[in-house]
Backbone:
């Protein structure tokens, strides 16, 4: 059955060099890729080595095979629709039969190949949207963002869920941007550190709102910060704040508090003059149709205007780099840092804030610095309690490695977090004034109630904990 058609198809491919090479490539890539794609869709392969081999190695080869095959069929002089091929078909004894069978064989083969490719393209597309692809492929470049992300509240949200919005225009934007980045990566021309804010892949407000409803955060949030002093006992102190998070307004609730800025009745625009948006020179508030402009005395020339959204405060919701102090405090909180080693907060802080040319060098020098300190100042501990010192060294290194990446020129405080005074006081300050001489308020109880500041045993903690 279909023998004639199959024979003709074979002989055609044999004669046509492009089709031959293309078919061989397809033959060696499509079956393994199909099997891998099916396994990947069903069981979600986690291994990045396998993903790279199949989707970045075999997949382009398959596309090349397909391209050669198509060129062979449609364009080349020995192609399927060339006069020679048609002449050959016509010369065959049983023309109609050969013609019909050839068409049938070709379409069956093509259908099978296309179905396989559908499965493969679908899986490969999913791979380009995966955390592995975004976070690990250009390993050196993305390590800082990936590291911070893995330890953040959003560690289970995929990169693309924040960075790529819905719809076709985002799709095009993201793939174009991706291509530009791959070129920069291959030619080693990418900026170090990666610039922020982002211009193309900046998460949109709608993106955050797929999971968080701004009108929903009614009320207050206790923020309790456990810190360590740099004294001999590494004394534990607490800062307690009641954040007036408020709401963007829901049903009868009027918008108030910190999330008042994102109420549907309020629009805030600001004019900034620097790349990082730290220097804000004018703020325009439009509330229920009424417009108020706050600006400084001096005329500023050119600037850029933006509408304020979630990211003007939550600019580091997942790539959270801590200050050196905070990073060490977190090591104490988790129990990784021994709290009864005299002066360890102070010594570790000195060790991790020195400048090192690489992470490897830092690991060695941090250990040296801490060891030296205890050898010289507490020889007893150094002799009898080496284990504790080793534990402290491990925690200090961890604090450093989670936050500092000399290869990408990322040091302590390279990226500013706007969710604090650094962000709020860009607008809430004395300099920007309305025509009536009003300023954007700064009283200490506007955004939070400061219930305790670096106190050892704050009464408020006893009250709220009931202990
Ligand atoms: C919860 C949302 C969210 C997720 C998930 C997320 N990002 Fe981001 N990312 C942001 C925001 C917000 C910014 C800062 C945007 C701005 O200021 O314009 C950012 C900035 C960046 C930057 C620019 C450099 C910088 O540090 O500001 C890179 C690179 C980046 N993200 C990569 C990633 C990668 C890779 C992943 C996945 C491993 C990821 N992001 C996951 C929200 C997210
Ligand atoms: C796919 C869903 C998803 C998206 C998109 C998302 N988040 Fe979240 N976010 C979460 C979840 C889940 C948590 C809670 C994590 C937990 O408590 O462990 C969270 C927590 C938070 C928190 C509280 C963090 C804390 O310290 O407790 C903030 C603030 C936040 N998200 C802001 C944002 C912003 C800003 C964006 C947009 C750039 C965003 N989120 C996008 C799911 C999401
Ligand atoms: C004016 C700055 C500002 C804007 C704009 C803003 N937030 Fe917040 N948001 C805050 C602050 C401050 C907190 C309290 C954070 C803290 O101290 O832990 C907060 C808290 C949150 C929390 C945590 C709530 C909880 O109970 O833990 C989420 C989630 C959140 N914001 C999401 C959003 C989203 C989504 C948007 C945009 C629609 C947004 N925020 C706009 C400043 C802002
Ligand atoms: C882009 C400028 C801008 C930034 C940044 C900004 N604010 Fe505001 N904020 C305003 C303006 C404008 C008002 C309204 C002042 C007025 O009504 O006179 C306001 C009002 C407020 C109010 C009072 C809301 C009410 O109930 O009426 C709170 C609370 C507040 N901001 C908190 C914050 C916090 C917290 C941050 C930082 C995380 C912050 N703001 C950052 C511009 C800003
Ligand atoms: C416009 C809003 C706003 C105003 C006004 C404001 N703060 Fe804050 N403050 C914040 C935010 C946001 C944070 C960060 C909360 C967090 O880290 O979760 C903060 C944090 C703090 C902290 C804790 C810092 C830390 O990490 O230990 C202290 C202390 C503090 N504020 C004191 C003050 C004092 C004193 C004033 C009056 C001069 C003041 N604040 C005015 C928004 C404000």
Residues:
């Amino acid at each position: 059955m279909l023998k004639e058609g199959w024979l003709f198809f074979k002989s055609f491919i044999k004669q046509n060099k492009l089709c031959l090479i293309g078919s061989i490539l397809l033959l060696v890539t499509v079956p393994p890729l199909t099997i891998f794609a099916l396994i990947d869709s069903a069981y979600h392969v986690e291994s990045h080595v396998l993903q790279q081999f199949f989707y970045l190695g075999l997949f382009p080869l398959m596309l090349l095979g397909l391209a050669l095959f198509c060129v062979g069929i449609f364009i080349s002089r020995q192609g399927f629709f060339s006069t020679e091929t048609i002449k050959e078909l016509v010369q065959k004894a049983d023309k109609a039969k050969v013609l019909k069978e050839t068409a049938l064989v070709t379409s069956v083969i093509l259908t099978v190949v296309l179905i396989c490719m559908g499965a493969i393209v679908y899986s490969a597309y999913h791979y380009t949207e995966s955390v592995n692809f975004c976070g690990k492929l250009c390993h050196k470049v993305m390590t800082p963002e990936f590291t911070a992300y893995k330890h953040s509240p959003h560690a289970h949200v995929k990169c693309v869920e924040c960075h790529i919005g819905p719809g076709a225009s985002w799709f095009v934007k993201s793939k174009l941007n991706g291509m530009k980045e791959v070129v920069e990566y291959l030619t080693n021309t990418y900026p170090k550190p990666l610039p922020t804010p982002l211009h193309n892949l900046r998460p949109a407000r709608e993106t955050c709102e797929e999971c968080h409803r701004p009108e929903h955060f009614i009320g207050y949030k206790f923020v309790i910060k456990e810190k360590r002093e740099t004294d001999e006992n590494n004394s534990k102190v607490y800062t307690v704040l009641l954040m007036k998070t408020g709401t963007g307004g829901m049903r009868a609730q009027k918008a108030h508090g910190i999330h008042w800025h994102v109420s549907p009745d309020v629009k805030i625009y600001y004019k900034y003059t620097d790349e990082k948006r730290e220097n804000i020179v004018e703020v325009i508030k439009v509330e229920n149709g009424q417009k108020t402009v706050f600006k400084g005395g001096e005329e500023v020339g050119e600037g850029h205007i933006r509408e304020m959204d979630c990211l003007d405060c939550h600019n580091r919701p997942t790539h959270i780099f801590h200050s050196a102090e905070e990073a060490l405090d977190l090591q104490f909180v988790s129990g990784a840092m021994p709290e009864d080693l005299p002066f360890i907060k102070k010594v570790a802080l000195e060790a991790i804030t020195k400048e090192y040319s690489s992470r490897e060098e830092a690991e060695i020098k941090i250990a040296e610095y801490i060891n030296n300190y205890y050898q010289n100042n507490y020889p007893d501990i150094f002799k009898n309690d080496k284990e504790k010192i080793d534990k402290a060294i491990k925690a200090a290194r961890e604090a450093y490695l989670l936050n500092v990446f000399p290869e990408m020129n990322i040091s302590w405080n390279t990226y500013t977090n706007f969710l604090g005074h650094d962000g709020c006081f860009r607008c809430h300050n004395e300099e920007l004034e309305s025509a009536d001489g009003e300023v954007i308020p700064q009283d200490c109880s506007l955004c939070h109630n400061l219930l305790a500041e670096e106190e050892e045993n704050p009464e408020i903690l006893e009250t709220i904990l009931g202990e």
The radius of gyration is 31 Å. The first strand starts at residue 221 and ends at 228. The mean pLDDT is 90.
